[in-house]
User: What shape does this take?
Amino acid sequence: MADRLPSYSAFWPHYLREHAQSRTRALHFLGTSLAILCLVLLVVTGSWWWLLAALASGYLFAWIGHFFVEHNRPATFTHPLWSLLSDFRMYGLWVTGRLKDELRRAGVQS
Assistant: This one.
């Protein structure tokens, strides 16, 4: 189904449903937090190794959640840009305490 999503507005609820289990979301939040930290360290130190660390940590934890918790394929494989945007959108909603309502609208029992 992910291959046939015609727009980002159709993709977003699908993305949330692909992150239905709280453990998957927790791994995403951990990976995204580490990736943000690595990007800050890139700016502070100027060492480009932090960019590699940001990519590795961001994807590693998310993919562990998909393959071993959620048992689905990461949306990165079919919609890489929408997936990246959605990861940061989900992260922002979590940080601001609004994720539960958004999950409910997408039909996810949080």
